[in-house]
Amino acid sequence: MTDPGEKVSGVDRALVMLIIGDEILTGKRQDKHFAHAIEALGARGLTLDSAHYLGDDRERISAMLRATIARGDIVFSFGGIGATPDDHTRQAAAEAFGVPLVRHPDAVREIEARFGAEAYPYRILMAEFPSGCGVIPNPFNRVPGFFLCEHYFFPGFPQMAWPMLDWVLDTRHPALRRERPVERTLVVYGAGESQLLPLMEENVVRFPRVKLFSLPTIMADGSRRLELGVRGAAHDVDSAYTHLLEGVRALGFAFEPLVPSLGAKVSAGAA
């Protein structure tokens, strides 16, 4: 098990986000963490590999965590670490890691410093974390989160969770940065995805390090518009994009590069 105090890089490991809470799934609250995490990670050239919404179900949360532990993922979990009966994340994490919940002395110290005698008998329950974990400081009200094996658990309140996420990225993973991916896109007019499928399949085979995407739209007048593009390292993207451009041109469809300053549609034979 990783030492909670050890700094890690984990550049090649999957980045996974968990958003936990019945209130999100029932629509009583709107999730804001997903968009913020994308921004915070993007500033470091990082992108999420997956994101999952889970209700306050201890068994489901524990099962998800056992899977991410087994894969060695880096996980950012938001919500469910309070002390009310509908909060299950702390308990689910302890079950997933196979350790008991214990009162962490640093968490006890922070909660006592914030609430004094009012920390007992209930607020202090929020200091009960999986045995062996480290704590994540909370600059808003001093009630900490916790981490174990690169699984990081934050409260559901954005004003608390977001600076805690920054602390994790800056303190625990200062070297967790990647080359910012490049994206190039063609807007193709009048084409359905099936008409371009052979071109897409060939592109995927020829450029395996690049991610291809296809976003079709049916316009109000019934016409078709397709955003066809590639994402990845710059030297790979340029070749893959050229392949798509030449293929679309050969098929005779009108297209334009999706670049803000280059908005003129070009015909199939244009340069």
Written overview of the protein:
- The chain has helices spanning 22-25, 33-42, 58-71, 89-97, 105-115, 158-172, 193-206, 234-251, and strands at residues 15-20, 50-54, 74-78, 101-103, 128-130, 134-136, 145-148, 151-154, 182-189, 211-218, 224-232, 254-257.
- With 271 residues, the protein is α/β, with parallel strands linked by helices.
- The protein has 2 domains: 15-172, Molybdenum Cofactor Biosythetic Enzyme, Chain A (3-Layer(aba) Sandwich), CATH 3.40.980; 182-257, ACT domain (Alpha-Beta Plaits, 2-Layer Sandwich), CATH 3.30.70.
- It has a 6-stranded mixed β-sheet, sandwiched between helices. It has a 4-stranded antiparallel β-sheet with strand order 10-11-9-12. Strands 4-5 form a two-stranded antiparallel ribbon.
- Strand 7 and strand 8 form a beta hairpin.
- Helix 2 runs parallel beside helix 6.
- The longest helix has 18 residues, at 234-251.
- It starts with 14 loop residues before the first strand and ends in a 14-residue tail after the last strand.
